[in-house]
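USER:
Try writing one entry.

ASSISTANT:
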Amino acid sequence: MKKDNVTAAQNAVKAATLSDEDMAELSRQTVASMDEKNPVVPDGDPLAQRFHDIVKGLESEDGLALNFKLYNVSDVNAFATPDGSIRVMAGLMIIMTDDEVRSVI
């Protein structure tokens, strides 16, 4: 078996055995790193107000508290982590309607 295949198999087993606590900690670390590297659109910015209007009422899902940030980057992207963190890039907001952004979230 090739080394890459063994490594992939080991990673798959490790991922399948992560506890909820492990996932939460990995989420916190990932989000903290991303938040540190990406500037957030300031609250007074019209794009930030539009974003707040879009996510209003989406404070939780199935008992999980959600937290949102809008990164001031031109990428057309968004991501969510198991801890309820949802990050949207300004580039996505610029090219999509409110309903389209909601569907991504």
About this structure: The chain is about 50% helix and 15% strand. The CA atoms of residues 31 and 85 lie 7 Å apart.
